[in-house]
Amino acid sequence: MKSTSQPQPTVFIIFGGTGDLAWRKLAPALYNLYLDGWMPDHFSIIGTGRTKLSDEEFREKLLEGINLFSRSGKAKKEQWETFSKNIYYQVSDLNDSKTYQELGSRIESYETAWNEKADLIYYLAVSPNFFPIIADNIAKKCPEAGLDRTRIVIEKPFGHDLESAKALNKQLQGIFDEKQIYRIDHYLGKETVQNIMAFRFANALLEPIWNRNYIDHVQISVTEQLGVEDRGGYYDGAGAMRDMVQNHILQLLCLIAMEPPINLDADEIRNRRVDVLKSMRRFDADAIRFSAVRGQYGHGWIEGKEVPGYRDEPEVNPESNTETFAAVKFFVDNWRWQDVPFYLRTGKHLSQSASVISIQFKNIPHSIFPPEAAENWQQNRLVFSIQPEMSIRMQMQAKRPGLDMTLNPVDLVFDYSGTYHGKPPEAYETLLLDTMLGDQTLFMRSDQVEAAWDLIMPILHAWESKKSLSFPNYPAGSWGPENAEALIAQDGFHWFTLPLNGKHG
Ligand code: NAP
C-alpha cells in the first residue's frame, strides 16, 4: 500500500498515446498527480502512435482530454505550461523495430540531461495483439535503458481465455520479473473498492458476523445503461463474461470473501485474493444452465431515446451469439462461506448504471412483533455502492415515529459526498502512482488472472458451443432477461437495486 515516499525520476512511455484511454484517463490522471505534488522532479511522458503529430499538437490533444475529463476541471494556464513541457510525442509503428531504438535513445537523452537514471514505465494502451511484440522489443531493443528499472503496465483484456492468458504470462515472465509486471484492473483502484478492505479490516464489529452463520447471500451488480457504443468490433469477440466478470466482478467478490491478511504487503493481500478464486466451486457442464444466465439486448428505449438492438450495432455480427448480459450464482467452498450464494450480474443497455454490492444478513431467529407491525420487514443489509453513488449503507429495522409500533427499514449511511470535501482521486491516479512507487497491491498477479479464467472457462465453453436460440432476450432499458430473475427467485431472493435517490427499495 502507498507510503508517503516520492517516486523516483520517471519516464512514462505510453504506447497508444493518441488513443481513447490516454485521452480520457491517463492524461487527466498524470496531470492530477502533478497538481497534487506526486510527480517526481524529473519526469517525461512520451506518447506514441502512427498519427503524425508534433509535440505541440500532441500536448493540445491531451489538454483537450484533461479539460473534458479531469476531476480538477479545466487546466490552469500556468500549471499546464509547466506540466506540458515534460510531454513528447513519437510517431511510430509498433511493428517496426526502429520505434524501440528511437525510444531507447530518447530515454538516454533525458537521463543525460537529468544526470540520473530513471525508472521506465511502459504503458501498453493498445490492442492486446501488440502486447507480445512490445514486450519482446522492450527486452531486445532497449537494453541500454536497463531492464531492472523497467515496469510494464498491461491493460485489460489480459488474454482471451485461459490458454492465451497463460501464454501471455509465460512470455512476459520470460522477459520480466513478476515484480515488473503491472496488470491493471482499474476497479481495484477505485476509492470505494479500496474502502471495502478498510471497512472490513479496520472495524472490529464486522469480522464476527462476516461468515455463513450470519450472511444469507451476497449480490454484486455492475449494470450499465450504455450499449457497446463504438466498441462493437471488440465487444463482439468478448462478451459480458470476458469484459466484466473475469476481471472486475470477480475481484470485487474476492475483496468481500477474502480472509483477513496479516499485513498490507502486496503479496499477502494478493495471496488472500487468490485463495478465494481457488476455493470457488467449479461448474460441471450440466450445472451451468441452473447457475448461469446469458442475455443479449434487443431494440428498446433508454431514458426516452430509442436505441437499436445489439445485432444492429456497428461492427457487430447480425447473427451474433455474444452475450451482453450475464448472471451467475457462485459458491465459495470454504469454512467461512460454505453454501452462501454469491449472485453476480452485469449487462449493457440496462435500466440503470450502477455498481453495487449487497450483503444480506440472515433473518432474526424469532420475532416479538405482531405481523401488522412488520409489514415492511426487510432483513439487514450492508450495501457498498461503488458508483455512481459512493456510499456504504447499513439497512436496519427501526420504529416509525407514532403512537403504534410500526417497523420500517432505515439506513445508517456513510456517504462520501456528505463526509468529505472535494472529489476523491480517480482509479487511474491511484494505479499510476502505485506503478511509480512500485506497489503492486492493487494489480493482478499472474496466478490471479489465470485462476479467474479457469473458473469461467466452463461457462464460456458451454455458451460458445451452443448458440442461444432466444437472443435477443431482453429489451434495451430493462433489467435483463427474465431467466436472470428466475435464477435468484428460485432461491427465494430478488435482485437488489439502489434507487437513484439513495433510498432502498
Ligand atoms: P484506441 O482508442 O483504439 O487506441 C489505440 C491506440 O493504438 C492508438 O493510439 C493507435 O495510434 C495505436 N496503434 C494502433 N496500431 C498501431 C500501430 N501499428 N503502431 C503504433 N500505434 C498503433 O484504444 P483505447 O480505447 O485507447 O484502448 C487501448 C487499450 O486499453 C485496449 O487494450 C483496451 O482494451 C484497453 N482499455 C481501454 C479503456 C478505455 O476506456 N478506452 C478501458 C479499459 C481498457 P494511431 O491511431 O495514432 O496509430
Describe this structure in words.
This protein is of the alpha/beta class and 505 residues long. It has 2 domains: 10-155, NAD(P)-binding Rossmann-like Domain (Rossmann fold, 3-Layer(aba) Sandwich), CATH 3.40.50; 188-489, Dihydrodipicolinate Reductase, domain 2. The chain contains 15 helices and 18 strands. It has helices at residues 20-35, 55-69, 77-84, 97-114, 131-141, 162-175, 191-201, 232-236, 240-257, 266-279, 288-291, 416-419, 427-437, 446-465, 482-489; strands at residues 10-15, 43-49, 87-91, 119-124, 150-154, 181-183, 215-223, 292-295, 297-298, 300-302, 305-307, 325-331, 341-347, 354-361, 381-387, 391-399, 407-415, 474-475. Strands 8-12-13-7-14-15-16-17 form an 8-stranded mixed beta sheet, with helices on both faces. Helix 6 (162-175) links the parallel strand 5 (150-154) and strand 6 (181-183). Helix 1 crosses helix 13 (427-437), helix 9 crosses helix 10 and helix 10 (266-279) packs parallel to helix 14 (446-465). The longest helix is centred in the C-terminal third of the chain and has 20 residues, at 446-465. It is globular, with a radius of gyration of 24 Å. The relative contact order is 0.14. The mean pLDDT is 94. The protein binds NADP nicotinamide-adenine-dinucleotide phosphate. Residues 16-21, 24-25, 49-51, 92-95, 125-128, 155-156 line the site of NADP nicotinamide-adenine-dinucleotide phosphate (NAP).
